[in-house]
Structures are given as C-alpha cells and as structure tokens.
Amino acid sequence: MKLLSLEAPRALEETIHVIQHGGVVAFPTDTVYGLGASLRFPEAIDRIFAIKGRDAAKPLPVLASSVDKVHLVAEIPGPEVTALLRAFWPGGLTVALPALPDAPPQVIHPDGTVGVRVPDHSIALTLCDRAGGALATTSANRAGEAPACGPGEISEQLGDTVDIVLHGGFAPCGEASTVIRIDGARIAVIRAGSIPPARIEEEWAGIMANATSPGL
C-alpha cells in the first residue's frame, strides 16, 4: 500500500493513473473513505470484494461524477427522475436505477438495478471524472467493521491490499446516504440516511405535480 498526501506533488495524478490502469485506491468522500475501481476493469472490481471480505452476492454501488454520467451504468427513466436527481446531487442520495445490459455484473442487483450517487466531495468527483465518469465503490473497511474516516484506519484494517490510499483529510463520517427506488409514480425508501425521506418525497410530489399540470 502506498500512502499519498494530497499535498504531495502529483499525488492526485498518480492516483488517477493507478485507477486508469486497473488498480484499487482508497480516497475520501462526503461520507467515509471509500475503495474505488474503474468500471472498465472487472478484475479490479473483484479485488474490492476480496479486499473487504465482502459477500459476492452484495453488488457494489457506483459513484458518478455528474447526472450526465449515469448513462455509463444505468437508465434514467424519464425527465421527472432526472429532475429529482438534479435536486439532490451532488449529495447524500443513492438511487436504484435500471442497469444497462453491459454494466459490470458486480454492480447489478438481482432486481436489475444499480445504486448510483453523485458525491458532494471534490476529490471523489475528480477521481470519478478522470476514471471515465464513474467508479465502482464501497466503504474502505473490512466487512462487518466500522467504516474508515481516515487513512490510519484503512491501514489497520486492510494492510497493504490497496494500491494507493489518497490522504485528503478526514471524512465526515456522518450518516450514510439515503437509498431509494422509484416505483412508477411513488418513491420506495430502501434505507433512511442523511437526507430525510420526507424531504425527498416532498420534492418528488412537486415534480410530479408540475409534470401533470395542464399547460397554460
């Protein structure tokens, strides 16, 4: 494992290079430190499962650099859903969206969806963008252990199994993202988190009301 301070010369560029060539890196996000791998390297995504000791039956979520990059792994079913995403991204909302047929199988749930989020963190966004627009990710810790909020915790739990740990300060380690699925015209909350479900449902109700209002 190589620990790089973000303040070191070319640290960000070296981390990006490792991702672009099939490596696994750890980096700060707006929630906790995460592990990330390029969607173009299935073997790197498999390494994340091995590093964490994660059940292979639990697909990885995806971080995207923008709403426009969701198309790399999923479909956005209509302008109303796009409006909802733009209302809360970047931020603590993960949305289960219909996966594309050629999305990596390691990120697709049995119901055919993939969980996607745009993080509110400049380092995470830059890494996603330079990796092609999205990364397969999960928290940087062993399965069943507490998520890492700093590089020292990653070293303790994961040893030298990660190619690079990018030290970009301490992650907030607040609440995890809220996870939802959109079933037709209603929102199903899979996991309550940093964004109150009531706030999401209120926004969605307003979007749907505007969509069905007759033109003036």
Keywords for this structure?
10-stranded mixed beta sheet; 216 residues; DHBP synthase; alpha/beta
Explain what this protein looks like in three dimensions.
With about 220 residues, this protein is an alpha/beta fold. The chain has a single domain (about 1-75, about 95-175), classed as DHBP synthase (Alpha-Beta Complex). Helix content is about 30%, strand content about 25%. It contains six helices and ten strands; from the N terminus they run E-H-E-E-H-E-H-E-E-H-E-H-E-E-E-H. The chain has a ten-stranded mixed beta sheet, sandwiched between helices. The chain starts with a strand and ends with a helix.
Q: Examine the coordinates and then state which fold CATH places here, giving the name of the CATH topology.
A: DHBP synthase
- State which percent range the strand residues make up: 15-25%
User: Residue-averaged pLDDT, rounded?
Assistant: 94
Order of secondary-structure elements: EHEEHEHEEHEHEEEH
Principal-axes geometry comes out as: globular
Number of helices: 6
Q: What is the CATH first-level class name?
A: Alpha Beta
Q: Strand order within the widest sheet? A: 1-8-2-3-7-4-6-5-9-10
SS class = alpha/beta
- Biggest sheet, open or closed, and with what strands and sense? 10 strands, mixed
Per CATH, the architecture is Alpha-Beta Complex
Helix content: 25-40%
Give the distance, in angstroms, between the N- and C-terminal Cα atoms: 62 Å
Q: What is the number of strand segments?
A: 10
Q: What is the count of structural domains? A: 1
pLDDT under 50 segments (min length 5)?
A: none
Radius of gyration: 17 Å
CATH H-level superfamily: DHBP synthase
